[in-house]
Amino acid sequence: MEPKYKRILLKLSGEALAGDKKMGLDYDVINSFGKSIKKCVDAGVEVGIVVGGGNFWRGRSSGAMDRTRADHIGMLATIMNSLAVADGLEHCGLEVRVQTSISMPQVAEPYIRNKTIRHFEKGRVCIFGGGTGNPFFSTDTAAALRAAEIEADIFFKATMVDGVYDKDPHQYPDAVRYDTLTFNEILSKGLKVMDSTAAAMCQDNNIPILVFDLSRPDNIYDACMGKNIGTIVK
Ligand code: UDP
Asked: Is position 1 within any domain?
């Protein structure tokens, strides 16, 4: 079966890497993502990944610290996660390169778009660490930016809920899940899919967003194959 999407940008939140522990890293969870991503690569999908940092650090909620400095720490947290995910994917038999927006050549390659494309051609997965490299941004925005740069067919926002609801499904049992949304509906209905900078970036560059649940890791593969899961925003 042919995959529906040939090149994807997968955004994994830091929280997702922590599993039930909520903090730090759960290697079994990372491994389960790796197995699904391996199936995608074997099916011919080119995979770019942006990893969040929330399992270690969140700049905006630290409060006491200067925001810029707190965000610097947040960006470093995303690089730690990128290295951990790279390790997990390698254990699943994938070839992986980590590229960072903040230079640290002893640890990982600098992000160079054309190098990324070359890695894809060789069947390698690229993990983009360090967010955008700038404070006051999120890893969702970094993921939208990289999706635009690498001309991804779609932005996979893999989260802890199985799509976008009209209200918080954890609080309201009668919450209704949307199958499809437009970017304008997100704004007009005030739905929280991602921050506005990230959403605007996707809208301006015509990148559809698929929001789906990672508690079933093989959703990554199913999403690539075009199975009807989650909520699509286009
Ligand atoms: N961050 C940043 N610039 C970026 C991306 C991330 O300053 O371009 C910092 C920011 O402090 C953020 C933290 O890194 O809170 C972790 O990223 P995020 O909260 O987006 O991670 P997630 O919620 O996806 O785990």
From this structure: no
